[in-house]
Backbone:
């Protein structure tokens, strides 16, 4: 199974359940690269557009590339009232895009699906001489041993997805690895920043969220349904709400 294609199964739930990104993150991007109505911006893996609106509202000409045909069609309709938006339904590596034409290329919780060698090479070929890249991810954490809502969910995960490895929260070591990767591929003026937040979701909202995860959708249907039933009961038994501890990491670089 190509796990990248599991996101294409329910575009409406994906748009409803996936979180947006902090306002401060976009402010930091705009401080790093000066964008205007004449700027050309490329988004890799738009999904249902959780990170797109700030660039459209900035007046940038936004081109998005999305592998999933349902997701691409959904975004085409969602942003149809913007004259400065276009979308290409394609794999990023295979997409026919003009070289040296983008002021900024960014990707929100998607670039890890792209092969590194070809992905970074293509980004560099598409950026203008003074262009920039912004890569960012959201890392949800629901394994806090000091949080009873997390302990409840952990018991269900252990039942259906036993794992010898301890689940750890995203930390600064991972940031340095990404910085080193950008250096390795020839990017300069690298900056990074981490943002924290806590989301509180009802049991129904959390089930809707995990249905957007590729590893969840890859489970056999019978197992998946039993998992969802037990997860809902576990959260309801501790008050009906689960706390999600998000870490969002941003990396900015130039060529």
Residues:
């Amino acid at each position: 199974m190509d796990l990248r294609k599991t996101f294409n199964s329910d575009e409406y739930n994906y748009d409803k359940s996936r979180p947006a990104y902090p306002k401060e993150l976009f402010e930091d991007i705009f401080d790093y690269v000066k964008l205007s109505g004449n700027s050309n911006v490329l988004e890799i893996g738009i999904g249902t557009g959780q990170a797109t609106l700030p660039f459209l509202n900035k007046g940038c000409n936004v081109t998005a590339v999305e592998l999933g045909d349902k997701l691409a069609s959904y975004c085409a309709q969602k942003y149809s009232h913007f004259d400065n938006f276009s979308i290409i339904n394609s794999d990023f590596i295979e997409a026919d895009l003009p070289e040296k034409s983008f002021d900024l290329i960014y990707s929100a919780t998607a670039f890890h699906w792209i092969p590194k060698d070809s992905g970074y090479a293509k980004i560099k070929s598409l950026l203008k001489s003074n262009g920039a890249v912004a890569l960012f991810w959201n890392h949800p954490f629901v394994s806090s041993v000091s949080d009873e809502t997390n302990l409840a969910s952990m018991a269900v995960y252990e039942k259906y997805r036993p794992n010898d490895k301890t689940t750890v929260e995203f930390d600064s070591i991972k940031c340095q690895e990404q910085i080193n990767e950008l250096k390795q591929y020839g990017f300069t003026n690298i900056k990074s920043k981490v943002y924290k937040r806590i989301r509180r979701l009802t049991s129904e909202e959390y089930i809707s969220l995990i249905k957007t995860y590729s590893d969840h959708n890859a489970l056999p249907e019978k197992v998946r349904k039993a998992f969802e039933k037990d997860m809902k009961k576990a959260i309801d038994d501790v008050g009906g709400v689960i706390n999600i501890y998000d870490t969002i990491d941003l990396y900015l670089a130039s060529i």
Observations:
- The mean pLDDT is 94.
- Residues 171 and 206 are 24 Å apart (CA to CA).
- The first helix runs from residue 11 to 17.
